Amino acid sequence: MSENAVTTNKFKTLDIVYIAIFAALIAVCSWISIPMAVPFTLQTFGVFLAVYLLGGKRGTISVLVYILLGAVGLPVFAGFKGGIGALLGSTGGYIIGFLFSALIMWAFEKLFGKKLWVYALSMLLGLIVCYAFGTVWFMVVYARSNDAVSLITVLGWCVFPFIIPDLVKIALALIIGKNKGIRKVINREEA
Fold first, then answer.
1. d(CA 132, CA 95)
2. pLDDT single digits (tens) 89-113
3. Residue 76 and residue 111: Cα distance in Å, rounded?
4. What is the pTM of this model?
5. Which of 8, 57, 166, 184 is the most buried (most CB within 10 A)?
6. Cα–Cα separations (whole angstroms), residue 5 to 9, 10, 77, 96, 171
7. Number of C-beta neighbours around residue 131 at 10 A
8. Contacts 24+ apart (CB under 8 A), 158-167
9. For the chain, first and last CA: distance in Å?
């Protein structure tokens, strides 16, 4: 086996390890939870940090792995929940929305490069898309098991209380993610 083949396999193995570590980090962030209609967690911080540090492709895959782990029943969601029922429940749209957030960050990275402002803007847009998808999902699922609920009521339950904390999580992800020491360890090929 040539040295290039060994190096390529080594980086593929490292990619898998980093993807798994960040999927686990997102799970741990989900367990730090304050129960509400939509639980207040650090999941969005984990999602933003994963994509920022790992890059679009590996970060998005780590978010997908996290969602799939929960879908098969591992208790990785807020409140130590898991299973397809958790995803199909009223707050499941926000969890699926994390994948859209990651995809937006990846697309922005591809289009505009790996600049701080690109990540900051893509995190904000990703958060808005996550809110939008999750809110529509919540309204549909909630209406099936209860009475219909107005958009402003759902925004009051599921979005407005989270805006400032989520902006703080974005700021923390940007601060931690731009740390050169952390970036050097995770992105060995760029070191």
1. 12
2. 999 999 999 999 999 999 999 999 9
3. 32
4. 0.90
5. 166
6. 6, 8, 38, 36, 39
7. 22
8. 158/37, 158/38, 158/91, 158/94, 158/131, 158/134, 159/131, 159/135, 161/36, 161/40, 162/38, 162/40, 162/131, 165/40, 166/44, 166/127
9. 25
Give residue for tokens 């593929």: 12
d(CA 18, CA 13): 9
Task: Name the DSSP class of 77.
Answer: B
Distances (CA, A) of 142 to 85, 147, 150: 14, 7, 11
Pair of tokens at residue 50: 């994963």
User: How many whole angstroms separate alpha carbon 143 and alpha carbon 31?
Assistant: 27
Residue type, 56: G
